[in-house]
Amino acid sequence: MAGSRLGQWLCLVVCILILLKAEGASIPITIVESAASSGALCLDGSPPGYHFEKGSGSGIDNWLVHMEGGGWCESVESCVSRRDTFRGSSLKMEKTMGFSGILGSKQAANPDFYNWNRIKIRYCDGSSFTGDVEAVDPETKLYFRGGRVWQAVIDELLAKGMQNARNAILSGCSAGGLAAILHCDKFQSLLPATARVKCVSDAGYFIHGTDISGGSRIESFFGQVVKTHESVKNLPASCTSKMNPELCFFPQYVAQTMRTPLFIINSAYDSWQIKNILAPTAVDSKKEWKDCKLDLKKCSASQLQTVQDYRTQFLKAVNTGLGSSSTRGLWIDSCYAHCQSGSASTWLGDKSTEVGDTKMGKAVGDWFYDRSAFEKIDCPYPCNPTCVSVDSES
After folding, report:
1. DSSP characters for 38-91?
2. Is residue 198 included in any domain, yes or no?
């Protein structure tokens, strides 16, 4: 009897493991061991990593490369505090990862991309994959090599078959969504001329905005990121040749000269931007915005008007960057959220957020395959009853 029960339990465990694998819940990390030879290293000097689920069937020659988010470190001090965490070292990263949303493997939940080669590049440099400092301080032992990390991973994927891609997307969320914009044209240039290549940025359209003090702390913050990591050499030359190179960390200036089609998934009330661009703690000495930033329902009437004005700033920056480009795609909602493409519940679930009666997964798929254009901007907060609460940097 005991043996029979044991057998049943073992069978159940095996079935669960098989199911988890089938749903992409245990995709192992791949470490780029060859990266050290080119100095393509995480902040702590460890080699970078990525998670890769191979394509199948009709998706065997299609590639979706998604870059993880997780903020930035703008100074030696902040990079040191990041260095020995999973944001700065592959030694600290989880060994397996599940995929969902835009990376999901279930046809019903991700019909356009479920059987593609799907990759998530782990983020361990703190510069949106743009840094490139040759010298390493023997005291801090910090490696500012984000640009090399990106290239090393892409080179390995090209060698694994991406060089023969028929369709490809470079995407990312938050700092990774910014990277998808900054590296978009370079990504396209590395693939066959016959391939359909487009980029998707989720919560990565950080604007050169004005904060509640009337200044722009985000300008000085991004400027410090660029200086610390010496990022200019990896920012698009089409932008850096025309203006202060440090401003080319802002999508609204880079997108103006992009050649590759770009789709923007973003909230006009992006929770990270409201907290860090509109009302950063450094300019809110009396903490009057503390509650409002956590929940827009707790904003005073005047604060809510300031938030609505930020939406106006955001939409202006989108139009400044993408203009009336016929290849652009827009899915701009009015939810208080950040990073919405990484979850099955927000990508194409039964209760996913809709803009113009369309869920983001369908909007991106239609746009990518040229089935139909999609440029929809939601009505002002709090008009959308389909909003799903999301505040992550995955």
Report:
1. GT---TTSPPPEEEEE---GGGTTEEEEEE-------SHHHHHHHHTSTTT-GG
2. yes
Distance between CA atoms of 194 and 341, rounded to whole angstroms?
A: 27
272 in a structural domain = yes
Q: What is the chain's pLDDT, residue by residue, as a tens digit (394 residues)? A: 445 454 455 544 444 343 344 344 699 999 999 999 999 999 999 999 999 999 999 999 999 999 999 999 999 999 999 999 999 999 999 999 999 999 999 999 999 999 999 999 999 999 999 999 999 999 999 999 999 999 999 999 999 999 999 999 999 999 999 999 999 999 999 999 999 999 999 999 999 999 999 999 999 999 999 999 999 999 999 999 999 999 999 999 999 999 999 999 999 999 999 999 999 999 999 999 999 999 999 999 999 999 999 999 999 999 999 998 889 999 999 999 999 999 999 999 999 999 999 999 999 999 999 999 999 999 999 999 999 876 666 5
Which one of the listed residues 90, 100, 174, 267 is annotated catalytic? 174
* CATH number of the structural domain spanning residue 206: 3.40.50
29 with 96: CB under 8 angstroms?
Answer: yes
Whether the link from the prior residue into 382 is cis, omega within 30° of 0, is: yes
Q: Are 168 and 162 in contact (CB under 8 A)?
A: yes
Domain range for 96 is: 23-377
Residue 174 catalytic?
Answer: yes
Judge whether 338 counts as a catalytic residue.
Answer: yes
| Residue 383: strand pairing partners | none
Report yes or no on 324 lying in a domain: yes
Of 66, 211, 338, 343, which one is the catalytic site residue? 338
> Does any domain span residue 12?
no
Q: Which of 270, 284, 333, 378 is catalytic?
A: 270
Total number of domains in the chain: 1
